Amino acid sequence: MKKIHIAFLIILFSLFTYNNFAQVYLRGVAPLEPGNLWKYYDIGWFGGQTNFFVTDSIKTIGSKTYSVVETYDDRNPTRYPLYFGITEDQFYVSYDIYSSDSIYMYLKKDCKIGDSWVENIDVLTFYYSVIDTFTLNAWGNAMLAKVIKITDDSKLVEVYQVWTDSIGLMEENSIGQYDMILSGCVINGIVYGDTTTVGVADDFELPKSHILLQNFPNPFNPITVINYSVKTAGLVKIKVYNILGSEIAELVNENKQEGYYSVEFNASNMPSGVYIYTLQVNDFSATNKMVLLK
Predict the structure, then answer these.
(1) Which ranges in the chain are annotated with CATH 2.40.360?
(2) Cis omega (within 30 of 0) for bond into 222
(3) Phi, psi angle pair for 224, to nearest 5°
(4) Do residues 139 and 146 touch, judged by C-beta distance below 8 A?
(5) How far is it, in rounded angstroms, from Cα 68 to Cα 63?
C-alpha cells in the first residue's frame, strides 16, 4: 500500500510540474511597442500579480532583433528580461536563452478562425488553433476577441487563451487548473483598466461588480468553461437551460466569498443547439447564451 501511495504522489508531482513548465512558454505579450505594460492577476493555484513591461531596449541575437520585456510579480519584485519579437511571416515569438530550441511561436498576428500552427518546445509539441471569435467589452471599448486552444501531444495540457489585436492577452484558463486575467494595461500611451502598483499585501484587487463572462470556447464540443466574479459574499447559483427554458443542469449552488471563479460545463450527453446559462448572487442575476456544436 505504501508503494502505491508513493507512486501516486510521483505521478501527481509529474503532472503538476509538466503543466506549470508548459505554461511558462505558452505566454507572451503583444503588441510590442516600447512603453506597453500589462498587469495580470493569477487567480488559480498560486495567486498574485504578474507584470510585463516593454522597454526601449533591443537585443540582437544572431541576425534577428528582439524587444526586451521585463517581467516581475508580487512574490519576487526582481525584474527579469524576456525577449519577444515578430517574424517575417508575422508570428510573435519568444527567445529562450535557457533552451536548445530557443525560439517559440506563441501568437499569429491578425489570426482568424481556422488558423493553426505547431510549436516544439524541447521534448514537447504544442498545437495552437483559433477556434472562436466574439466581441469583448474591455473597459468600455468594444474589441474583437479571439479564442486560441492549445493542446500537447500527450493530452496533459489543454489551455484556452483569449487575445485581442488591440491590447493583447486578456485571459487564460486551463480547465480548473490555472486562471489568469488581465486587470489593466497601457498600450501606446492609453490606459485600460487598473494599472496601479501597490504594496504586496494590498495588491490583489477584489471584484468591483458581479460579472458573468462569456463562456469559452464558444461554440464548444462538449466541454466549455464559464468564468464569473462575485462582488459580495452570498449564495451563488449557476444554472443551464435549453432554448425552451427547461433547466438541464445546476453547475453551482453554494455560498462563496468575494473573488474570481470558474466552472466547467460538460454537455457530452446533450444535443447540439443554443443553451442559456444564468448567474444569481443574492439579488443580482445575469444571463448569457452558448452554442453546443457537435
Answers:
(1) 2-202
(2) yes
(3) -140, 165
(4) no
(5) 16
The segment(s) of the chain belonging to CATH 2.60.40.1930 are: 211-292
Within 8 A by CB and 6+ apart from 133, the residues are: 112, 113, 144, 145, 146, 147
CATH topology of domain 211-292: Immunoglobulin-like (2.60.40)
Within 8 A by CB and 6+ apart from 162, the residues are 136, 145, 146, 147, 148, 169, 170, 171, 172, 216
Span 230-239, pLDDT tens digits: 888 899 999 9
Which segments of the chain have a pLDDT < 50? 1-25, 176, 197-204
- Tell me which of 1.10.10, 2.40.360, 3.30.200, 3.30.519 is the CATH number of domain 2-202: 2.40.360
From the list 244, 235, 230, 228, the residue with the least C-alpha distance to 278 is 228
Closest by CA to 216, choosing from 157, 155, 277, is 277
Determine the 3-state secondary structure of 83 from DSSP.
strand
pTM above 0.70, yes or no: no
The grid cell for 52 is: 510585463
Strand order in the sheet with 273-281: 247-256, 234-241, 273-281, 284-292
Q: pLDDT tens-digit profile of 142-154? A: 999 999 999 888 7
